[in-house]
C-alpha cells in the first residue's frame, strides 16, 4: 500500500508509573465489578447455555448476576421450566456453582416479573383495597336497600367483607352503624331527623396479577400490609430451598408497583392501635377530596399507618427471612406508600433505579431527541433516598437498577452509559446493576432473546468487544466507593408529614416516575439541589432515625457503623412531630448543631392534636433565640440552634465549610478511610479544567488515580489545593492520605503539546465480525465511516467490527503521544505494532499510545465496533422474524410496537481526522 504524506518522526516512549510502586487502588472484589440483571425468558435454560453465558460475562468483567425469570419466547414452550420446580432449582444450583468457580456472585428475585406475587398468593393474601359505596337516607325513612357490594368483579370472591358503615348528617355529625348491618346487608337503623349520607367500606381485592410473569410465577400480587400474607408467600421458597440458600448472596424484591392497594383486612384495628382513635367515625374525610384541615389530618394518620404496616409487616419480615437463609436481601422501596428512608434502611442492600436519559453538557455527547424518553430524566436527589438510608445506618452497599430505557433499543453506546453511571455514583450509590442481560440459547440467531425495556448488555450486542472498557471503569470506581465510609457532613430532615397532610387522594406512593409532583415542587428539594451544587454533601434523615440519633465525638450519629454529621437541617415545613422536636432538643442539649429554616407551624395528624400542638409550641419556646445579624441563634445546652430562611448563611455561621471545587463546575463525592479521604471528581461541563482546585481535606500526601485506565501518581499541591487536568467528560479519583507513600511516582501533568500529526494517508478497511454479512474490503484515500459507501448495500446493514489499518513513520521525540479521534462510531480497540494499546469507548475519544510507538515505521489497526441499529433496521425492512415473545412481545421507547424499518442508517466507523499529538510532561521520572 502506498502511503502519502509520510511523517518522519522519532519517538521517546514513556511508560507510566513504576512496576515497583505501591498500588493505591483498593482491592477489587466481585461487588466492585458491575452486576447485571439476568432475565431467564420462560426459564428455558440449560446447563450448557448457563455455563457459556456466565463464562462470557465473567471474561467481560461482570462480578455477578441477578436472576429474574420472565415470560418466554414463542416456539420454545417445550423448554420452559416452572419457577421453583425441582428442575428449576437444579438449574439454580448449577448457576451458583458455576458462578462460584468464576468468582462471581448470584442474586435472585423472590418472584417472577413484578411486583412480588405468584400462584402461592391466594385470595386472602392478595393485594387489598377499600371499596366505598354511598347511600342517601331521609329522616324517618326505612332504608330498604341492602348494603352489599355492587362491584361485579368482586362478587365471586370469598374474602369480601363489610368493614365500616358510617352515616353523616348535614351538620357532619357521624353515627357508626357497622354493627347495625345484618349478614344479608339489611340496615337496622332509622334517623329521626335530617338528611343522612351513609358511607359503606368493603374490604375488596385489587385483582392485580404479576406483570411479565414467568411460567410457574403467574398469580395475584401480594398484600404488603399483611404480616400473614408475607409469611405465607415466603413459605413457598422455604419449601423449594429447604435448609440451603443454594448459594444466593441476596434475595431481591423489585419496586413497589401495586396499583390501588390502599387497605388490608385488619387495617381498621391497626389504625386504632397505632393512631389512638377509631377511623370509622372519620371515614368520610378519608375517602373524599374535600380540601379541609380535618381531611388532611385524617389522611396523614392513614398514610403514616400504611407506612408502618409495609415497613413492619413486609420489609422487616422479608429481611428476617433472608437472614434465616444466611443470605442478604435487596429491596427497591420507591413506589411504596411509606417513608422511603425507613423502608430502604430496613434491608441489607437498598436499591434505587434510574429510568431515561440525562442531558449533560459534555462536548459532542450524543443525545438525539428521537431516541430518548423526554418525559422522565434521572434525578440525583431521588437516588439519594437509598444512599442516605444506607449511609446513616451503615449499610456498605447501595445498589441501582441502571440504564432502563436510556435510549431507544440498539442505539445506546458505552460513551452514553458512562456519564449516567457517574451521576449514579455521585448520588452515593456504589453497586451498579445493569438493566440488563437476557439469557439466550446457543441455537437462537442474532440478536438473541431480548427484554423489551433494557439497554442490551448482551454478548450479541455488536458493541460487546469493548464492554470491558466500561466494566473496568466501573470496577475501579466502585472499588473506591465501596471503601471506608461515606463522608457527608450534613443531615437534612425529610418533611414527610407535609406530603402526607395533603387532603387529596388516599394512599400516596412515592414513585420515581412522578417526582415532578411530590418531590420537585418542595422547598426540601430546592435545598437539596442548591446545597449540592454549592459543594455541600448531605444525607436525608427520617423522624425515626432522628429518634435513634446520638451526639458523640462532636458529631451526630444514628448507627455505630453509619456516617457522622456536623449539622442537622430542618427545612421549611408546616407539620412537625412534637416528639421529633423533643429528640432534636436532646441532641442540641448534648452538643449538636441544628438549623431550622422556619418555625414549625403545627403537629401532624388528628389524635389530641391541640394538646400536641401546645406541647410543640412549648418546646419551641424553650429555645432562647437571639438576633444575630441576618439570622437568629441560640445556645441550647452544649449545642447551637439556628433559625434562618437562608440555609447556606446558617451553615456559614456555624463554620460548616462547603467544597469550593464545585465553583469550577466539577461534581464530587467523598469517602473517608482510616488515615485519609477519597474524592471522586467528575467533569460534566463542556470545558476543560486545568487548574488547582481547593479541597477541604488534603492530608500529607495527595495521589491522583484515573479510573478509566488505572494510572496513578502523586499530585502537585499548594495551600490545600490540588492541580487537576480534566477534559470534558473525564473523571478522576483523589486520594488524600495522612501517611505518605514514597514508592508512588509523580503524576504526569501535560505541560505542553506540539502540533498534531494528522494520519491523513490512505487506510485499508476490512471487516472482522458481524452481520448480516461482512462487507468487502476497501482502500480509503481518507478516513470515513463505512456507512458512507451507499453503493455497497451491505455496509448500510452491517453491525459488527470493521478494522481500519495503516502504517506511518515517526521521527520526533516526545514524552508521550495521544491518539485522538475526531468522530468514533462507537468504540474501538487500538493495536499498534502488533500490541494491544487499549480501548477507546468514552469521551473524549483519545488514548495515550506513546509506549507502543517506535522510531521509524509503525503500524496501526483500529478495530471499530458500531451499534446494533443498522442490522436491526435491515431485519425489519426484510421482514426477518426476530421478536416473537409472549406477554408484551417487544415495544419501542414510547411503548408502541417496535419497527426499525424506517430508521435512518446510523453512521458507523471512523470519520474526520485521527491525530497523534506529541505530549510533554512537567513531572518526569
TrEMBL record:
It comes from the Bacteria. Residues 803-884 form the Beta-mannosidase-like galactose-binding domain. InterPro entries: Beta-mannosidase-like_N2, Galactose-bd-like_sf, Ulvan_degrading_GH. The keyword Hydrolase applies. One of its GO terms (molecular function) is hydrolase activity. Keywords: Hydrolase, Signal. PANTHER family: DNA-BINDING PROTEIN (PUTATIVE SECRETED PROTEIN)-RELATED, SECRETED PROTEIN. It holds the Pfam family Glyco_hydro_106. Residues 1-21 form the signal peptide. This is Glycosyl hydrolase. Gene3D superfamilies: Galactose-binding domain-like.
Amino acid at each position: 500500500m502506498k502511503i502519502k504524506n509520510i511523517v518522519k518522526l522519532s519517538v521517546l516512549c514513556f511508560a507510566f508509573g513504576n512496576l515497583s510502586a505501591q498500588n493505591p487502588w483498593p482491592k477489587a472484589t466481585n461487588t466492585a465489578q458491575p452486576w447485571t440483571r439476568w432475565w431467564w425468558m420462560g426459564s428455558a435454560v440449560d446447563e450448557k447455555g448457563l455455563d457459556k453465558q456466565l463464562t462470557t460475562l465473567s471474561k467481560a468483567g461482570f462480578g455477578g448476576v441477578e436472576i429474574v425469570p420472565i415470560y418466554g419466547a414463542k416456539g420454545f414452550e417445550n423448554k420452559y421450566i416452572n419457577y421453583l420446580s425441582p428442575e428449576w432449582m437444579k438449574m439454580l444450583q448449577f448457576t451458583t456453582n458455576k458462578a462460584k468457580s468464576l468468582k462471581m456472585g448470584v442474586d435472585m428475585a423472590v418472584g417472577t416479573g413484578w411486583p412480588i406475587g405468584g400462584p402461592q398468593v391466594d385470595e386472602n393474601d392478595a393485594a387489598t383495597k377499600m371499596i366505598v359505596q354511598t347511600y342517601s337516607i331521609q329522616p324517618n325513612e326505612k332504608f330498604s336497600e341492602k348494603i352489599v357490594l355492587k362491584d361485579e368483579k368482586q362478587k365471586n370472591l370469598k374474602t369480601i367483607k363489610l368493614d365500616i358503615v358510617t352515616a353523616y348528617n348535614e351538620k357532619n355529625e357521624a353515627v357508626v352503624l357497622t354493627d347495625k348491618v345484618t349478614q344479608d346487608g339489611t340496615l337496622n337503623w332509622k334517623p329521626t331527623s335530617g338528611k343522612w349520607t351513609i358511607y359503606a367500606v368493603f374490604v375488596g381485592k385489587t385483582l392485580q396479577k404479576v406483570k411479565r410473569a414467568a411460567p410457574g410465577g403467574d398469580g395475584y400480587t401480594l398484600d404488603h400490609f399483611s404480616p400473614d400474607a408475607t409469611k405465607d408467600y415466603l413459605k413457598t421458597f422455604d419449601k423449594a430451598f429447604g435448609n440451603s440458600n443454594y448459594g444466593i448472596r441476596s434475595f431481591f424484591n423489585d419496586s413497589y408497583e401495586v396499583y390501588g392497594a390502599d387497605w388490608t383486612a385488619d387495617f381498621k384495628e391497626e389504625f386504632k392501635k397505632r393512631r389512638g382513635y377509631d377511623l370509622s367515625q372519620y371515614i368520610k374525610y378519608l375517602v373524599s377530596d374535600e380540601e379541609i384541615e380535618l381531611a388532611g389530618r385524617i389522611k396523614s394518620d392513614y398514610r403514616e399507618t400504611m407506612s408502618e404496616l409495609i415497613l413492619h409487616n413486609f420489609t422487616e419480615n422479608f429481611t428476617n427471612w433472608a437472614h434465616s437463609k444466611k443470605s442478604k436481601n435487596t429491596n427497591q422501596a420507591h413506589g411504596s406508600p411509606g417513608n422511603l428512608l425507613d423502608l430502604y434502611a430496613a434491608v441489607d442492600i437498598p436499591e434505587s433505579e434510574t429510568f431515561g436519559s440525562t442531558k449533560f453538557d459534555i462536548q459532542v455527547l450524543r443525545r438525539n431527541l428521537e431516541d430518548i424518553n423526554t418525559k422522565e430524566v434521572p434525578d440525583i436527589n431521588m437516588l439519594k433516598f437509598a444512599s442516605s438510608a444506607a449511609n446513616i445506618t451503615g449499610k456498605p452497599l447501595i445498589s441501582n437498577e441502571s440504564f432502563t430505557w436510556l435510549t431507544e433499543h440498539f442505539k445506546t453506546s458505552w460513551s452514553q452509559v458512562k456519564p449516567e453511571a457517574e451521576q449514579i455514583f455521585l448520588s452515593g450509590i456504589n453497586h451498579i446493576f445493569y438493566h440488563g442481560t437476557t439469557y439466550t440459547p446457543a441455537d437462537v440467531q442474532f440478536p438473541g432473546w431480548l427484554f423489551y425495556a433494557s439497554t442490551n448488555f448482551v454478548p450479541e450486542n455488536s458493541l460487546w468487544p469493548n464492554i470491558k472498557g466500561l466494566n473496568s471503569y466501573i470496577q475501579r470506581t466502585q472499588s473506591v466507593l465501596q471503601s471506608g465510609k461515606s463522608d457527608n457532613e450534613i443531615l437534612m430532615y425529610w418533611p414527610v408529614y407535609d406530603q402526607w397532610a395533603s387532603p387529596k387522594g388516599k394512599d400516596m406512593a412515592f414513585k420515581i416516575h412522578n417526582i415532578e409532583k411530590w418531590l420537585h415542587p418542595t422547598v426540601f428539594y430546592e435545598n437539596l439541589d442548591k446545597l449540592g451544587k454549592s459543594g455541600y454533601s448531605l444525607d436525608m434523615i427520617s423522624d425515626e432515625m432522628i429518634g435513634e440519633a446520638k451526639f458523640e465525638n462532636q458529631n451526630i450519629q444514628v448507627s455505630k457503623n453509619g456516617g457522622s454529621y456536623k449539622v442537622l437541617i430542618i427545612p421549611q415545613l408546616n407539620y412537625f412531630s412534637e416528639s421529633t422536636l423533643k429528640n432534636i432538643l436532646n441532641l442540641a442539649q448534648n452538643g449538636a448543631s441544628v438549623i431550622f429554616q422556619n418555625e414549625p407551624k403545627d403537629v401532624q395528624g388528628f389524635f389530641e392534636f391541640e394538646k400536641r400542638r401546645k406541647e410543640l409550641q412549648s418546646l419551641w419556646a424553650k429555645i432562647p433565640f437571639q438576633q444575630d445579624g441576618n439570622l437568629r441563634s441560640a445556645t441550647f445546652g452544649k449545642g447551637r440552634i439556628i433559625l434562618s430562611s437562608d440555609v447556606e448563611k446558617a451553615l456559614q455561621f456555624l463554620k460548616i465549610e462547603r467544597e469550593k471545587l464545585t465553583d469550577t463546575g466539577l461534581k464530587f463525592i467523598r469517602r473517608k478511610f482510616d488515615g485519609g479521604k477519597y474524592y471522586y471528581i467528575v467533569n460534566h461541563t463542556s470545558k476543560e479544567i486545568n487548574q488547582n482546585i481547593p479541597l477541604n481535606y488534603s492530608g500529607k500526601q495527595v495521589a491522583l488515580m484515573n479510573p478509566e485506565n488505572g494510572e496513578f501518581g502523586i499530585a502537585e499541591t499548594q495551600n490545600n489545593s490540588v492541580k487537576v487536568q480534566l477534559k470534558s467528560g473525564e473523571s478522576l479519583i483523589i486520594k488524600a492520605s495522612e501517611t505518605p507513600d514514597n514508592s508512588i511516582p509523580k503524576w504526569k501533568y501535560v505541560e505542553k503539546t506540539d502540533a498534531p500529526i494528522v494520519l491523513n494517508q490512505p487506510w485499508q478497511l476490512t471487516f472482522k465480525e458481524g452481520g448480516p454479512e461482512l462487507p468487502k474490503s476497501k482502500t480509503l484515500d481518507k478516513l470515513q465511516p463505512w456507512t458512507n459507501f451507499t453503493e455497497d448495500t451491505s455496509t448500510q446493514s452491517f453491525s459488527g467490527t470493521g478494522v481500519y489499518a495503516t502504517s506511518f513513520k515517526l521521527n520526533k521525540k516526545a514524552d508521550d503521544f495521544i491518539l485522538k479521534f475526531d468522530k468514533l462510531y462507537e468504540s474501538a480497540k487500538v493495536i499498534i505494532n502488533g500490541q494491544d494499546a487499549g480501548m477507546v469507548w468514552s469521551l473524549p475519544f483519545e488514548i495515550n499510545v506513546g509506549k507502543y510507538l517506535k522510531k521509524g515505521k509503525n503500524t496501526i489497526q483500529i478495530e471499530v465496533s458500531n451499534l446494533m441499529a443498522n442490522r436491526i433496521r435491515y431485519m425489519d425492512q426484510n421482514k426477518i422474524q426476530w421478536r416473537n415473545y409472549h406477554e408484551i412481545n417487544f415495544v419501542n421507547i414510547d411503548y408502541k410496537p417496535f419497527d426499525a424499518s424506517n430508521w435512518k442508517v446510523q453512521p458507523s466507523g471512523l470519520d474526520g481526522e485521527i491525530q497523534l499529538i506529541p505530549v510533554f510532561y512537567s513531572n518526569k521520572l
